Every structure is written in C-alpha cells, then in structure tokens.
Amino acid sequence: MPADLLLKTPLHALHLAAGARMAPFAGWDMPLHYGSQLDEHHAVRAGAGVFDVSHMAQADLSGPQADHYLRRVLCGDVARIASGKALYTCLLNEQAGIIDDLLVYRLGADRFRLVLNAARREADLAWLRAGQAGFDVVLTPRDELAMLAVQGPQARTLADPLLPAALRAGVAGLARFAAAEEGDWLIGRTGYTGEDGYEIMLPAAAAPALWQALLQAGVRPAGLGARDTLRLEAGLSLYGHDMDDTVTPLECGLGWTVHWEPAQRDFIGRAALAAQRAAGPGRQRAGVVLACRGVLRDGAPVLQDGQQIGHLTSGGFGPTVGRGIGLARVEAGAGGACTIRIRDRELPARFVNPPFVRDGALRVDLPPLVEV
Hints:
By secondary structure, this protein is α+β, with helices and mostly antiparallel strands. It contains nine helices and 21 strands.
C-alpha cells in the first residue's frame, strides 16, 4: 500500500519527530523502532517503555442482553468476570477456527469494551454484527480513542503521577487483569510483553500530551520490533502467525481460554471443539530454543529423526534469553531434542514449555551451546 494511503495514529507526527523508522502494519504507518530495537527491548525488561498501539480496534458493546450475546460468541465465559475485570479469549467460527484473539473488559452489568487486533478489525466487526440478530445489543466502534501500552517493572510507578487525578485512586491498588474507568479513559493492568504495566485507552486528543509526559518521566519509546521480541519471549501468540481461522485453541496453546462449564452454554464452535477434544488434537503448540548460535524464522521446518513434524509459527532472537527461540505447531506428543531447518542447514534445538521469560526472569532451561 502506498505510504500516503496508510492510516496514521494521533501520535504519528511525534514518531516522525523522534526519528522513528516507520513501517506499514495492518494498513497503518507504525514505528518499527526509534534507533535501536535491542535497546528498546531491554528498556522494557529492566525499566519502562511505552508503545503506541492506537492501531488496535476498540469497540463497546452494550444493551440488556450484552452478557448473553458475548457468552454465545466468545469461547470464554464473561459471566466469570465482575465489573472492572478483563478476560482474554477468542472468537471462533463454527469449525472452532480462531477468527481473532481479544481482550474483553466488563465495565458494568450490561456494558463491555472489546480490544481487537488491527488486522482483524473489519472481519471481527462484521462477524459480531452478523451474530447480533435476536439479541438486544448495540455495538459501537470507538475510533475516536487512542491506546498506549506502558510496560516494564517501573511502568506503573512512572505512569501513575501522569494520569488524570480522578483515576489515580482507582489504579493505586489495581490487580492484574483489572481496569479502572473515568469518562473516556479506561486503564487496564494488562499488556503484551510479559511485564507488568498498563494499557491506556484515552481520547485521541489527549494521547500526545500523555506520550510526551511519559518520555519526560524517563519512559522509553518502543516500536513494533521490540513489541514482537518481547511477546515472543513471553510465549504470547500473534494472530496470523501462531493462529488463524484454520487453527483451533486446542492446537495453538490456547485451550485454557475455553470455558467448558456450564455445559449448557452453547458458544459458537463448541461442537467442533468438543469433538476435537474427545478425539485428541493431532497437533500442538511447543516452544523451541536453539542449542547453537543462530536466529530462527517463521515458517522454518521442525524435524525429529530426519522427518518434518511441524514448522515454526513465530521465530526470532530472544534478547533476554540470548538464544534463537520460536513457537511451533508440531505433531501431538512431540518433545525432547529436534532440529530446525534454516536454508540448507539443520540447527540443533530443544522443545521447551513457554513462556521463555516472564517478569524479567528466564523461565526455561537452556540446552548447552554447541558449535555447528
């Protein structure tokens, strides 16, 4: 897409002024990094970084049957969350393929906020609207809002004094996967990095001032490059890579997002997913760590005993891990040692159980380094 046709967030001019390297992503002109992706990654692990994630789609759902509607279209049960809490779950099609993974915040008895992937915005909204028939609900895209993610062990300490005064008491004791709301501001203690912090939804007009205040307080701007290496180390899935509408939650490590009880809740995709669970899925998600120096890439074949048993769905270098790491979809039951084919070489690796890193700490055992 030509650069002049790409969508721009409310912070676009500030990214350019900061010398960001921009790149197209899901139809948006987004910052890839501000000079050093590696430094941005380490800043989030050790201190605090802020990401412009205003390209994410936000939509409100309200009405007397909002709860019943979401219990039908989501594989996770919103009846399990109280007002002010968040739930990570999936939209499934009738074959139990994942239309999107999303966050849903309960803001009241009959009022919710959905946060959807940018690349899935139109598909998600069309699916949600199609499913509204027979339910007394209203779906309202919130395109006038921006979104900042402040992440890292110092994120909350640095961000709290910069929030509107009316919100500071609400966020002071905020638990993880909880949210505080004031007017058009919604702050969730959530994120996509494996670190603590906030995702701040706010009026677009207020976003530049908050961004600049965060930078002045010592929070480092970070782009999509660091966001990807951080989420990969945290073992967090990326739509279109680790899952899509041909992959079920049971095949990509998201079975925990499915709430099977109560048995009478007939969410979309339940029958197909239940049949797969009964038969046993033929493939599973696994983490892999290289036992040699190198960088892994999406799509690389994964082999055992010379036979391909799957492929990498996400791959890269983990700056905190210090190794090439990846997420793979492989035959069910796979474990132990494996090899990854990169061009014409087969690199030794080992299966591990993600996350690789969480809250700044290494969470997997690394195989000894070997020369190849």
